[in-house]
Amino acid sequence: MLAMLLHRGADLPMKLPALSPWIDADLGIPADDVFAALAAQTGRRVVKTHTPLDGFPVWDGVTVITVYRHPLDVFFSLRKHYANMTVGRQDDPMRQPLPDSIHHFLCGALDLEDYSSRTLESVAGHYLETLQTDRRRRPAMLHYADMMADRRRTVGLLAEIADVEIDETLIDVVVEASSFGAMKAKAADFAPAGGTGFFRADEGFFDSAQSRKWLGQMTQDALDLYETRLADHIPDAKARAWLQYGNRSKPTAS
């Protein structure tokens, strides 16, 4: 959405992973190539990172936008991504049977030397670092559930945060071009490392765009453990609720 706003439409000058790289991910693309592609851009640039806010410098003129999602949706999305990847350790916890994998996610400790080892503590720690930052300019915080509930409002909000002039036509174009179906149809252009064979199927990166992926997948004991562990990591109930549901109410069971 940000790249399309900055480039005034859906026709981006290059594939999204090259135009707006995931700067700290090892996707098989040499770091020198990533930096060279960024250096060649003459306008405002967009980069993606999973590094917590205390892990990278922020210069004057840089706008930081953070996006969070329900931790269990994060977990199930990660499992889909790892199953679709052609690289990586086969014994990675995300590739293990679900009971073992979810136990590792819920109970595994934060490893600062291997931040790519995803655990509930790493997700919570990332979120708390953003909440507690002493940066001069606090980052904008968006939640996936709110973004998906009203994508038109999301495009307008992103433009406001990034100080991009927009009109109704540009909003329409970005909303349509950034829809789940449109991006999945052009997965080789939009998926991380698209077209390189990093994923078995680039379109598999775009799984369902749905939330509450854990329904019917976890035992009640596992759900109870999740609630306990999340409260341990994030004692404040309001902060905990926002990480899970954004500005929307907790959905009722159906």
What does this structure look like?
- The protein has 254 residues and is mainly alpha-helical.
- It has one domain (2-245): Rossmann fold.
- The chain has 13 helices and 2 strands; from the N terminus they run αααβαααβααααααα.
- It has helices at 2-6, 16-19, 31-39, 71-84, 98-107, 120-131, 144-149, 151-162, 168-177, 180-185, 187-190, 220-233, 237-245, and strands spanning 65-68, 140-143.
- It has a two-stranded parallel ribbon.
- The longest helix is centred in the N-terminal third of the chain and has 14 residues, at 71-84.
- It is globular.
- The mean pLDDT is 89.
Question: What keywords describe this structure?
Answer:
Rossmann fold; 45% helix; 2 strands; globular; two-stranded parallel ribbon; 254 residues
Short characterization:
This protein has 254 residues and is mainly alpha-helical.
